[in-house]
Amino acid sequence: MKVLKLQSLLILLIFSPLSLMASIPNGPVDKDVHIGIERVGDMTHFEFRGRKNWEYTLGKEGDVVELIVPRLGSKDIESLQSYSGLLVKKITVDDSVENKTKIKMELADEFVENFDYLTQEPSHLVIDFFVSEEGLRKRLQQQRVAAAKKKKVQKQKKNDSEIFADLSKSKRNPAFAEFLFANGEPAPNGKAPGATHQELPLSPLAPVEELFDFGALTSSAEDSLEAKVIEAQGNIYLRFPPLKLENRHLTELERFKPEYEITPSFSDENKQARFLLALYEQRSYASFIKAKQLFKKTFPESKYDEILNYAEADIWVELWKKNKAKQYITKAMTIYRMMVERHPNSKLTERTLIYMGLLANETEQYFLATKMLQRYLKKYPNSPFVNYAKIYMADSLIHLNNYEGARQYFDEAIASGDEGSAMEAEFRRGDVYYHSQTYRRAERSYKEAIDKYPLYAHNYPNAYFNMAAAQFNLAEYPESLETFKKFFDTYPTHEYSAYALTRIGEIIDILLKDRRRAQGFYNEAYYRFRNSTGGVIARVRSLSQRFADMKPKELKTAIQEIQEKGRKIDLSQVDEFVAFMISDGYYSRGDYLKAAEALIKYFQVNPKPVNIQKFEKRISRAIAGEIKQLISQGKVVDAISIIESHQKSWLSKSRRVDVQMFRAIAYEKMGLFDQAFDSYDRLYKRMTLLKGSKEEKERKIFEYYPSFDKVRLRQAVSAYGKGDIKLAHSLIKEVKNVDKLQPDMKADYFWTVAKLSYDAKVYDKALEVGLKVDESQISDPQDKEKFNIFLSQLYEKNKMFDKAISILEDYYKKNKKEREQVYVLSRLFHLYKDKGMPKKAIETGQLLLNEYDGKYDLDRERYYLGDLQYQSNDLKAAAKTWKDITKKTMWSDLAKNRVGSDEWREKTKESMKRIPAMAR
Fold first, then answer.
1. What is the SS3 assignment for 108?
2. Is the pLDDT of residue 101 over 70?
3. Cβ–Cβ under 8 Å, residues 500 and 466
4. Which long-range contacts (CB under 8 A, 24 or more apart) does 558-561 make?
5. What is the pLDDT of residue 314?
6. How confident is the model at residue 430 (pLDDT cuts 50, 70, 90)?
7. Which of 40, 318, 413, 712 is the most buried (most CB within 10 A)?
8. Could you give the 3-state DSSP secondary structure of residue 60?
9. What's the rounded Cα separation, in Å, for the pair 47 and 49?
10. Nearest 5°: phi and psi at 122?
């Protein structure tokens, strides 16, 4: 094993001149010995402390490092053996050597490097593990070679379907990327890992070239753009964050980064300061920070403080760039501010002030940014960066709600005559109006900038995205759709394209009511940007819209996913949005009470939501949907119960017209025609007062709003039901647009007109109108049966006995209820009799009497049955039939008179002559 003595020796020379003296023999384990292990930036830091002197041997071979130190205690050994990290995978400890402990560290791979050194007073042994940039490059090259070889082999072996499956997989980050971020976590704004179609349980992705084939966005009078705008206002659309232009001038300032240099001398302070700079230049950031802490203890008032402090601040900035940890940039800014205050006339102060201003702006420390930039502008008015300082000053003021101040700084940059800064100020000026929510001026400002600099507009994505968002907020949906399309066409891989695709899907839903196409955009947004906020919002919308097709288990999983993803969305009102999405999903599958419950539960926990009126409308809409469904199912008592239970709460807030209508319909179906009529009358008067108002337009969109014709029709039916034929006739005449009635309402209309004509004994007209009723349009089975019986009556009155009989015979076969069978058999008996079918009539009459005599008053049928038997010369049967008329009624008198008449006696004699035995 190769022992790295040279490097260790150099460190010893610099930090510990006395360490070359004879070492003190090791004794028993010191109780103060302690081992610290921590992650600093992209390094793993081991620190052995607690001894006056650390005598050690360290060597590396391949991906294994072996360290021999004075004997360690059992707790330290246990701590080492239990450790595992990104760079050091496994540690094994051997303490069998006398007074020594041998530590074997298995590294992640051969590209992990180590750096060890000793410190003095107190004595610490420090070992850092890291991957240098050179190591990263070597690793990447090695992976590329391996991938190329693998691809070459697979190309020969794979069939077409396997190759296609591989092509469908998105590229992953290289394996070494985990070393670029602290704790193995990718940067928040990093690229999202890819996903295959199989991993995404959604409909297939639309080809990009087909995404924007919107066709003509036409609107009918009944489905006008105004109506779509009103409907959209009842929904919740999350406000996406405005697109802030990338701070490109930070990169420009990096080119002016100072080079730190210390003139060599033979003092310990000089040597250690130069060593720190060497660590800085080698990008050994963790080692620099630890060593500088020790340097500060040794030389608390060093003449090299300015250089070393600036270097440390630069290091914290570099660490912040890698993982965006807030504490890193805070440390950097603290040091920079200290340096500016301590050394106001330093050559580094000018750059530091503007650098701090831009960094503060980038990290959203806007108040600090304005202070630094204001100070810079005052102290360096002739700097070449003045205009850019004004631009970022303006941007910072925007976020501090000082819109007038921001506009003034942008105007100054535009008036400066410098074309580059003037152009950027033009494109950024719209941000002032957007943030102040003066969306019309924002739209105009962005358009003016694009028109003025068309060749450079693509460099300013904020202009397109924020203008599209402004148009959306102005409810200019067609214009917003087109602008979002331009944004996506120009910046298809931009992080905000996830927001753009999601918003496009929402606009398609608003304008075209085409949820299938909207789903395509949601799926595309989630597939391309699944780890971005825009992609997550798209997924939530997609899941909500798919509730209707889900099985219970799928539904439960989808709701859990929506709630989980909602917690990942860092936007205002997201909790309300999630509650709406779950409720809307339930509503789409007809689970109206669950739709209401989802919002009510949220409301109970959050009694003052931002969108309180939208909540109230959504809850009442869901309740109304349940009432409507119950009525259509014939469960009118349950419908009334729902109305009454919510009458003083959610329904009282909205006073829905449709619920008033449903109540009246329920009364009508329950046979409470007086109450139904009065309810319809009050409803008609209320609708008359609302006619032509804005409230009427809104209610027609958010409610199952009835037409005037529908209300008048139902009122006429109720009037007929309570026996006011004249009033019913008057009301039915007020129904003007019969063709526009819903199918079931149209059937009711013709049926009612037919009944009125029947009652007026205008049977031919009654039949003519009755035949216009489409039986399939009558949803209630009992109503359908009633209509068929009525139609048979119309045929009977118009002497069309065959058709009347056909209807009744079919009804008799299908209906087994006793009362209905008695009625139908009685009707059939008389129809057979009147049509001249005595045999059929006698059979039906006997069946009727055999089954139901004694239970119902059938004397009329008994009399006519006896008459048919008499006409058929079956005198014995006729006599028996008439004899059984026991009640003293008109029918018993007629039967008695018939039996005692001369005709009866003559017929009896004729019958007896035909029987020889009797004649004799």
1. coil
2. yes
3. no
4. 558/585, 559/585
5. 94
6. very high
7. 413
8. strand
9. 6
10. -85, 160
For the chain, what's the residue count?
920
Least Cα distance to 714 among 781, 757, 668 occurs for 668
Q: How far is CA 13 from CA 7, 255, 810, 812, in A?
A: 10, 36, 114, 115
Q: What average pLDDT does the segment 77-98 reach?
A: 88
- Token output for 249: 């001038």
Please give the order of strands across the beta sheet that includes 113-119: 34-40, 43-49, 124-130, 113-119
Q: By three-state DSSP, how is residue 38 classified?
A: strand
Question: How far is Cα 568 from Cα 577, in angstroms, rounded to an integer?
Answer: 13
**pLDDT of res. 916:** 46
Residue appearing with tokens 């005052």: 378
Instruction: Say which residue the tokens 């260790």 belong to.
Output: 8
Backbone angles phi, psi at 479, to 5 degrees: -65, -40
Burial of 26 (C-beta count, 10 Å sphere; 0-12/13-18/19+)? middle
d(CA 472, CA 340): 45
Backbone angles phi, psi at 31, to 5 degrees: -65, -15
Give this prediction's pTM. 0.69
Taking CB atoms within 8 Å and a gap of at least 24, the contacts of 532-535 are 532/192, 532/495, 532/498, 533/498, 533/499, 533/568, 533/569, 533/570, 533/571, 534/240, 534/495, 534/496, 534/497, 534/498, 534/499, 534/500, 534/501, 534/502, 535/192, 535/498, 535/502
The CA distance from 875 to 881, in Å, is 10
| DSSP labels, 393-439 | HHHHHHHTT-HHHHHHHHHHHHHT--HHHHHHHHHHHHHHHHHTT-H
Task: Give the separation between CA 920 and CA 856, rounded to whole angstroms.
Answer: 44
* Residues 485, 465: Cα–Cα separation, whole Å: 10
Give pLDDT, residue 579: 95
The band of 911, judged by pLDDT with boundaries at 50, 70 and 90, is low
Query: Is 251:263 a contact under the CB 8 Å cutoff?
Result: no
Distance CA 333, CA 352 (A): 10
pLDDT of 687 over the 90 cut: yes
**List of residues 6+ apart from 638 with CB closer than 8 A:** 630
What DSSP assignment string belongs to 301-321? T-TTHHHHHHHHHHHHHHHHH
Tell me, rounded to whole angstroms, the distance of Cα 661 from its chain centroid.
33
Cα(216)–Cα(738) distance, integer angstroms = 32
pLDDT band at 639 (very low <50, low <70, confident <90, very high): very high
- When mean pLDDT is compared over 28-32, 226-230, 590-594, 907-911, the highest value belongs to 590-594
End-to-end CA gap in the chain: 149
Query: Phi and psi dihedrals of 36, rounded to 5?
Result: -110, 135
Q: Which of 122-126, 238-242, 301-305, 577-581 has the lowest mean pLDDT?
A: 122-126
On the question of pLDDT at 20 being above 80, the answer is no
Mention every residue, 6+ apart, whose C-beta is less than 8 A from residue 195. 170, 527, 530
**Between 173 and 155, the higher pLDDT residue:** 155
Residue 612 and residue 606: Cα distance in Å, rounded?
10
Q: Residue 785 has which token pair? A: 């049966």
Least confident segment among 184-188, 435-439, 478-482: 184-188
Q: What is the mean pLDDT of residues 149-163?
A: 50
The answer to whether 600 and 619 are in contact (CB under 8 A) is yes
